[in-house]
Every structure is written in structure tokens, then in C-alpha cells.
């Protein structure tokens, strides 16, 4: 009897601790999105702010991290999901990027702004710029995408439809939000960008999130892919 009560208390305390971390992290990321454009003289990331505000409201209102995918999956399951998603997405990139130059063109557009994620490489030389890029993308901008699409939106769709439809649905919405750069692409590049780099990525990391009910495998994949592609192409 006592053991069961103590176990329940431990689980409750862990849940409260996770909620505090989620709210603090999301709030800090939102603050960084406000401050960074001023500090680095970049464009203002309106979409990313929205992608943080919605899950943050959910966290504050419901006090439930599972509703936004902010949960720690089983270590082995999470690792398998991240590796599988990384292999699939990496294979697509190897097949498409060398002859299409889609991501290369995307980087050119990002540096022209400059986009706050890549402005670190513009404003700082050497290691400082790369550290800033890695931390800001992983903890702020890419985190905002995963928290909203593979976290809050995926879980909202799961309550209304089947798992496969939910994965496809969040990928479609993700693609719509990501579609602005197509106006600066050649027609073929625009099509590949929407199909592979937006919808394809959304399905791949969305499937990983659905399998684990967590944003972390997907966040690991997109953060590493972003850094590797940037290092190769810059």
C-alpha cells in the first residue's frame, strides 16, 4: 500500500517537473525569437513565434506535456525511430540534392535576409558562428517546428482521426507554412522542395513522432541534417 503510494507520488513529481521544463524551455525559446532579430539585425520570425505560442498556451492551460509531444520515449525505441528517420531522409537528400541544388538555393535565400537561424554564420566568424547556429536551430527555431507540427498539431489530429491520417495531415499543414520560398525557386526546384524538403520531411519525422509519441527523434534528425547540409554547402 505504501509502496504504491510512493510510486504514484514519484510519477506525479516527475510529471510536474517535466511540465516546468517544457514551459520554461518554450518560453525561453520565444524570448530568444524576440531578442535575436534585434541583436543580429535579422528578419523577424513570425511563424516560429506562432509555433511556440500555441503549444505554450496548451502547456499552461492543460499542464500536460503529452499533448505537445514533450515526453521522453523509451531510449531504445527513440533511438531506433531517430536512426530510421535519419536514414530515410538522408537517402532522399543524397538522391535529390546533388543535381537539384534545392537546399543550396534555400541557404542563399536564408543568408540574404538573413534568416535568424543562419545569421549566426553571417555575424560571427569560425566556431562561434557554428555554435550559435547549432544551439539556436536545435533549441529555438527547429524546436518550434517540431513542437507545433509533430507535437501539438499531431496530437490534436490524433484525437480526431487515424494515426496515418494524422501524420499526413500535419505534413500537409507543414508544407503549406513552408511554401513561401517556392516563389524564389525554378519550377522544378519548387516542386522538389514541396515534395521532398517539406512534405517528405514532415511525413518522415511525423512518423517517428507518431511511433514514439515524442518530438525528440524528429528534432534530432532535422537538427543534424540542417548542420550537415549547411557545413557541406556553405
Report the sheet with the most strands, covering strand number, pairing sense and barrel closure. none
* Tally of contiguous helical segments: 9
The arrangement of helices and strands along the chain is HHHHHHHHH
Oligomer: single chain
Beta strand %: under 5%
Instruction: Please indicate the count of domains.
Output: 1
Could you report the average pLDDT, rounded to the nearest whole number? 92
The number of strands is: 0
Secondary structure class reads mainly alpha
Relative helix content: over 70%
What does this structure look like?
The chain is mostly helical and 234 residues long. The protein has one domain (2-233). It has helices at residues 2-40, 46-62, 75-100, 102-112, 119-123, 126-158, 163-177, 187-212, 216-233. The longest helix is centred in the N-terminal third of the chain and has 39 residues, at 2-40. The termini are far apart. Residues 1-8 have low confidence and may be disordered. Residues 131-227 form the CAAX prenyl protease 2/Lysostaphin resistance protein A-like domain. One of its GO terms (molecular function) is endopeptidase activity.
Question: Can you give me a brief rundown of this structure?
Answer:
The protein has 234 residues and is an all-alpha fold. It has helices at 2-40, 46-62, 75-100, 102-112, 119-123, 126-158, 163-177, 187-212, 216-233. Helices cover 81% and strands 0% of the residues.
Amino acid at each position: 500500500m505504501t509502496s504504491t503510494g510512493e510510486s504514484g507520488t514519484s510519477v506525479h513529481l516527475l510529471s510536474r517537473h517535466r511540465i516546468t521544463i517544457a514551459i520554461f524551455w518554450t518560453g525561453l525559446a520565444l524570448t530568444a525569437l524576440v531578442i535575436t532579430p534585434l541583436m543580429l539585425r535579422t528578419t523577424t520570425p513570425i511563424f516560429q513565434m506562432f509555433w511556440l505560442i500555441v503549444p505554450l498556451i496548451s502547456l499552461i492551460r492543460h499542464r500536460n506535456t503529452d499533448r505537445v509531444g514533450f515526453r521522453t520515449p523509451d531510449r531504445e525505441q527513440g533511438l531506433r525511430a531517430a536512426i530510421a528517420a535519419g536514414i530515410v531522409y538522408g537517402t532522399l537528400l543524397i538522391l535529390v540534392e546533388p543535381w537539384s541544388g534545392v537546399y543550396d538555393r534555400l541557404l542563399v535565400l536564408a543568408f540574404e535576409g538573413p534568416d535568424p537561424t543562419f545569421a549566426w554564420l553571417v555575424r560571427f566568424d569560425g566556431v562561434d558562428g557554428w555554435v550559435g547556429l547549432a544551439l539556436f536551430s536545435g533549441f529555438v527555431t527547429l524546436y518550434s517546428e517540431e513542437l507545433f507540427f509533430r507535437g501539438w498539431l499531431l496530437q490534436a489530429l490524433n484525437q480526431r482521426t487515424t494515426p496515418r491520417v494524422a501524420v499526413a495531415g500535419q505534413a500537409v499543414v507543414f508544407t503549406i507554412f513552408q511554401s513561401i520560398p517556392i516563389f524564389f525557386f525554378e519550377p522544378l526546384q519548387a516542386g522538389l522542395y514541396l515534395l521532398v524538403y517539406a512534405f517528405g520531411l514532415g511525413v518522415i519525422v511525423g512518423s517517428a513522432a507518431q511511433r514514439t509519441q515524442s518530438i525528440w527523434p524528429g528534432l534530432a534528425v532535422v537538427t543534424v541534417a540542417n548542420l550537415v547540409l549547411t557545413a557541406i554547402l556553405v
